[in-house]
UniProtKB/TrEMBL annotation:
GO terms for molecular function: phosphatidylcholine lysophospholipase activity. It comes from the Bacteria. Pfam families: NonGDSL. It comes from Methylobacterium oryzae CBMB20. This is G-D-S-L family Lipolytic protein. Residues 207-230 are annotated as: Disordered.
Length: 230
């Protein structure tokens, strides 16, 4: 449950045989299960990309919305010097009732800025929870993340769909959630980490679509055609 796209900076790091540096933002950095996310992501990536040394700098803040993370991006990127930014985004914006157009604009601008510095981006859309499944504003934020990913040409982890599927496959219902909080438990974090790793690995197998050659303009004849004698 993901959408792939080119990851040029990640490919360059692998080609140069150097550690892959990832900056993880968004979501919650609160103590508890969430604190294990970087380790789970690192393990999932090293399984998906054997022989690749992965380092993860996790800088998520509890309850942070997209515009807040965007304001910190310049500092975070300057300090971490990442090849790839993995951004969990949208859940807190939806809960905070951020205007969807303002959210989409802030996200698109931030993603564009990251990519302009030759850094790859993978977006992770909001958490699925039955309590918000019918909420129009929540679903508009989910859709906005997907739209930005498509417009910016970056990979997208469809976390909402993945967790929806996971919840439908267990008798425990939302076994991926930490009680009534908008936070993932160990199962949910492991599921997300595996989907992020799979998205990155699959995107790396994607090749550039060759451009169709342009038709050469018609050239005038070198000599005038001879006329048949009258």
């Amino acid at each position: 449950m993901y959408t792939v796209a080119q990851l040029g900076a990640v490919k360059a790091a692998l080609a140069e045989n150097r550690p892959l540096k990832i900056l993880a933002i968004g979501g919650s950095a609160a103590p508890g299960a969430s604190a294990s996310y970087p380790a789970k992501l690192e393990a999932a990536l090293e399984h998906a990309l054997p022989k690749v040394d992965v380092t993860i700098d996790h800088r998520g803040l509890p309850g942070e919305i997209a515009s807040g993370a965007a304001e910190r991006l310049r500092t975070m990127v300057a300090e971490a010097e990442p090849d790839l930014v993995v951004w969990q985004v949208g859940t807190h914006d939806a809960i905070a009732r951020v205007d969807v157009d303002a959210f989409a604009s802030a996200l698109a601008e931030a993603v564009g800025w990251i990519r302009s510095h030759e850094i790859d981006v993978v977006l992770v859309d909001p958490i699925y929870t039955a309590s918000m499944a019918a909420d129009v504003d929540y679903n508009r934020i989910v859709e906005a993340v997907r739209t930005v990913a498509t417009q910016q040409g970056v990979p997208l982890v469809r976390r909402y769909e993945a967790l929806h599927y996971l919840s439908s496959r267990t008798d425990k219902g939302e076994g991926h959630m930490l009680g009534r909080q908008f936070r993932l438990n160990d199962l949910g974090l492991r599921c997300m980490a595996e989907h992020v790793a799979l998205t990155i690995a699959t995107s790396l197998m994607r090749t550039e679509t060759p451009k169709e050659p342009k038709a050469a303009p018609a050239q005038p004849p070198l000599t005038e055609p001879q006329r048949a004698p009258g």
